[in-house]
Amino acid sequence: MWTWPYVPSFARSFVWGAAILALFPGNFLSSILMDKLFWKSGLSLTAMSVAGMPVLVAMNAALWFGVIGALRRLLGRRSY
């Protein structure tokens, strides 16, 4: 998010598309959590953005580790 102005213009659509596909579920969940926790707290938008980055990373990491773990369990039970 903070590096968006520095991304070359030819790569912006690829970066945006990759973020939508790879990070959307975690971004959506973290936005809901940040809204519930900090919206009426009196923090500025910049402070909420800074506080939200670790939440965003943690939600995406937990989501993808869960997906990878579920896939490993499903694929590991096959007998060839």
Detailed description of the structure:
It is built from two helices and no strands. It has one domain (7-76). With 80 residues, it is mainly alpha-helical. The termini are far apart. It is 74% helix and 0% strand.
* Strand content bin: under 5%
Q: What is the count of DSSP helices, taking H or I runs of 4+ residues?
A: 2
Number of DSSP E strands: 0
Pattern of helices and strands:
HH
Summarize the structure.
With 80 residues, the chain is mostly helical. It is built from two helices and no strands.
Blueprint (SSEs and pairs):
Blueprint: H1 12-38, H2 45-76
Which short descriptors sum up this protein?
mainly alpha, 80 residues
